[in-house]
Amino acid sequence: MSRLLVCSEADPPSVNIRAALLRMHEWEDMGSLDGISYLRRGDVYIMSIQDMHTRHDDLDKQAESFGIAVDEVIVMSRHSAKSGRPALTAHPIGNFKGNEFGGRERTLVRPSPALMTDALRRIARYNADPGNQVCFEVTHHGPWLDKPTFYIEIGSDESHWGNPVSAETLARVISDLDPAEGYPTVVGVGGGHYAPRFSDVALTHKVNFGHMLPLYQYEDADDEEFLRMLGDACRVTGTDQVYIHKKSMKKPMERRIAELVESAGYDAPSSSDFEQLSVS
User: Fold this and answer.
1) How far is the C-alpha of 143 from the C-alpha of 241, rounded, in Å?
2) Burial grade of 265 (CB within 10 A; 0-12, 13-18, 19 or more)
3) Which CATH class is domain 3-176?
4) How far, in Å, CA of 250 to CA of 52, rounded?
5) How far apart are CA 167 and CA 132, in angstroms?
6) Is 58 left (phi over 0), alpha (psi -120 to 50) or beta?
7) How far are the Cα atoms of 17, 41, 81, 173, 226 from residue 161, in angstroms, in the given order?
8) Cα–Cα distance measured from residue 199 to residue 207, given in angstroms and rounded to the nearest whole number
9) Contact, 157 vs 84, CB < 8 A?
10) Distance between CA 233 and CA 210 in Å, rounded?
11) Cα angle at 258 between 186 and 261, to 5 degrees?
């Protein structure tokens, strides 16, 4: 599998993660095209762009025009949050509704469930700072790409973006990615932006998460709109299994969502249906 790592020169954590990767390994300088430079190490490539990645559509196609066969994409990024809490996160991308932060309206990018969930597990394993929040974020923001993509991020404000330990941690995660075979894949429904339940289940059970549809995206939506968002998430993720964070909803909402999921023909496993991960 050919893996494209995207670095934005306008994004300090992105640059710092790239710098850590350059210290860890020997890379071949492949040159540049249209202001975009490329490095190679085996079947892993680093693509460095000048602008912010969230609004730079078709990164995969640009790399392919340079002669790189792209199978999957990881974007190295900062994470911003008003809380300012230090964080290491991973998340799928796309928009359930509008595209205020890049990408296409009502369009989801294919996720990399096994790779992204392996990344979260390695972040939790390699993280040396107990003050860091380690979690998924739900699906949000651009850019648009055709290839399976996820973001890996350092947060949550300028006081943490330059943390060299965080950059080294995520560089090590990216270098060591080796997702297990055969785990079921689910779409997550419910909960908040930082997906605490999905993160917890992923860190304790043999299951991979693709797109995640949080409560705030559908709590005011009618049934048709909810099913449209859920259908898009399942189709693009490539699964018919939906994990519902039931405790994040009031009982009437929980019953409604469960009935809609069933009516659409999707399975709704609980965490007890997944094999537990061994503690290492």
Assistant:
1) 26
2) exposed
3) alpha beta
4) 39
5) 13
6) left
7) 10, 26, 12, 17, 35
8) 11
9) yes
10) 8
11) 55
Tokens in use for 239?
């699964």
Number of C-beta neighbours around residue 195 at 10 A:
26
Of 123, 12, 5, the C-alpha closest to 63 is 5
Reference 144, options 232, 236, 57; nearest CA is: 57
Cβ-contact 111, 210 below 8 angstroms: yes
Determine phi and psi for 180, rounding to 5 degrees. -70, 150
Report the chain's C-alpha Rg in angstroms. 18
Name residues whose C-beta falls within 8 Å of residue 139's C-beta, 6 or more positions apart in sequence.
Answer: 91, 92, 93, 94, 96, 108, 111, 211, 212, 213, 233
Residue 67 CA: distances (Å) to CA of 3, 31, 42, 182, 183: 13, 12, 14, 32, 33
**pLDDT-derived band at 279, boundaries 50, 70, 90:** low
Domain ranges of the chain: 3-176, 185-273
pTM of the model: 0.97
3-class DSSP state for residue 158? helix
Average pLDDT, integer, range 1-16 = 97
Looking at residue 164, its pLDDT comes to 95
Task: Read off the pLDDT of each residue in 45-54 and give the average, rounded to a whole number.
Answer: 98
The single-letter code of the amino acid at 219 is E
Q: Which option is the CATH number for 185-273: 3.40.50.10700, 3.30.2310.20, 3.40.190.10, 3.40.390.10?
A: 3.40.50.10700
